[in-house]
Amino acid sequence: MEFSGFRVIKEALTSHKGWKALWRDPAPQPDYDFVIVGGGGHGLATAYNLAKTYQKSRIAVLEKGWLGSGNIGRNTTIIRSNYLLPGNQPFYELSMKLWERQEQDLNFNSMVSQRGIINLFHTDAQRDAYRRRGNAMHLTGAGGTLLNQSDLRKLVPFLNFDNARFPIKGGLLQQRAGTARHDGVAWGYARAADKLGVDIIQNCEVTGFCIKKGKLLGVETTRGYIGAKKVGVSVAGSSSRIMAKAGIRLPIETHVLQAFVSEGLKPTIPNVITFGAGHFYVSQSDKGGLVFGGDIDGYNSYAQRGNLPVVEEVIESGMALMPMIGRAKLLRSWGGQVDMSMDGSPIIDKTHIDGLYFNGGWCYGGFKAVPAAGITFAHLLATDTPHDTAAAYRFDRFNRGALIDENGAGAQPNLH
Amino acid sequence: MIIPHPLLGPRDAQEFTYLGDASLMARPDPYSESAEAEFCNYVYLRDNPAGIHRELWFHEQGDRSWLIITRDTLTHEILGAELVSADKLKAGL
């Protein structure tokens, strides 16, 4: 089933009776060439790319709950490629380029909106840091414009420019960044993968790995044993739990990140804005709600909910940045479990077990990486060699001291 | 979260800073032959359990004592709190 303007009009005239389910609900086969554990954004994008490149393989995605029920369904939908370090920036720029043609690739409306992201600065030192970051972005073709205060006053006049403690001096704008419809991304990849023959098996939890003499033979699941030549694990906050079943300890702690949405308002925030003095980022959804968030709570958590001190801190940061939101009501807040790695950067690598591959450690930034993680993880699974842009995301970087630490915070996951 | 401090009674978790898994108290032997690999594991690898977790909290905005909190990471329920010094003595560290 292809989506098109013609089709929408035709269905509108025939009571929408022609729409079919977007993917099948198959029973698991006894074995597959590739099994992807985790039916979220990364897992589905990986399966789609495997199927697209290696169309004859038999591929399954195993999802413990329902498709897209993890972090792909609960993030703040920001896509951007405004990183600094050489190991990171080319990867995120690849992802940004893929976002730009996502809807054409998948024939699905992901509502990619390149409304721009502005990182505000408040001091001379921050201005220097953002100028450096902007230059690093230009090296990969990501673009980037340094705005001064008068530019900003025209673009986002509602900010608290003259805050006595944190006056806003300017910002780094990446115009190509923006937002995407997070659920739509999962659905688009699921539909496209299913069309290429991928079995998406929901309500199928992996309970163990079958490993003989250092070689992976398959996975034990709640729906029986499934044999597999290669297994890729892509389960975000549950990374440590799943990999522990294969006896592997990870450089990861699972933490809780909260997010918030206000009641629907008229269009007021034209882009994505991040506060440079506190940790606060905000955009406005197409339904009108202000979508915002801040820091992680800071302690290990699998609860998928946070505590009130961080709620207070995030709201205070928002009020300091744009006092106008004080009149808006908070509609809801929620939490997701994020796989905080020891240097704040992800891992896409083989494990020491033959046939077992891992993609995780995305901290709170996995959503923007979905398209590139799909391509690079599929490349690794299929060829056993890392993709050029993901070559730095190896397990052994911790042993080699080759950390990719954007924040310079050291091996303390709650500081990244 | 309210932390039941053994000396000061119930205290708001906001008064504390969090370090992580309590097993971090047991540092590897720097003189062993495999010290480099052991320290690498010590610094970077974590068990990261879903469920009961023993972890180090520092009462920074209070009496500046280190506590070992036993907490369920699935529910945030706090099951116990003890001073590090007593625990260290027990463990012979």
UniProtKB/TrEMBL annotation, chain A:
GO CC annotation: cytoplasm
Task: Enumerate the GO terms in the molecular function aspect.
Answer: nucleotide binding; sarcosine oxidase activity
Annotated FAD dependent oxidoreductase domain residues: 33-379
Q: What is its main location?
A: cytoplasm
Q: Gene3D superfamilies under this entry?
A: D-Amino Acid Oxidase, subunit A, domain 2, FAD/NAD(P)-binding domain
Kindly indicate whether the keyword Transmembrane belongs to this entry.
Answer: no
Q: Which UniProt keywords apply?
A: Cytoplasm, Nucleotide-binding, Oxidoreductase
In the record, biological process GO terms are: tetrahydrofolate metabolic process
Q: Where in the cell is it found?
A: Cytoplasm
Q: Which SUPFAM superfamilies match?
A: FAD-linked reductases, C-terminal domain, FAD/NAD(P)-binding domain
NCBIfam families of this UniProt entry?
soxB
The protein's name is Sarcosine oxidase subunit beta family protein
UniProtKB/TrEMBL annotation, chain B:
In which domain of life is the source organism classified? Bacteria
Q: Name one GO molecular function term.
A: sarcosine oxidase activity
One GO biological process from the UniProt record? tetrahydrofolate metabolic process
What name goes with this protein? Answer: Sarcosine oxidase subunit delta
Show the InterPro entries listed in the entry. SoxD (IPR006279), SoxD_sf (IPR038561)
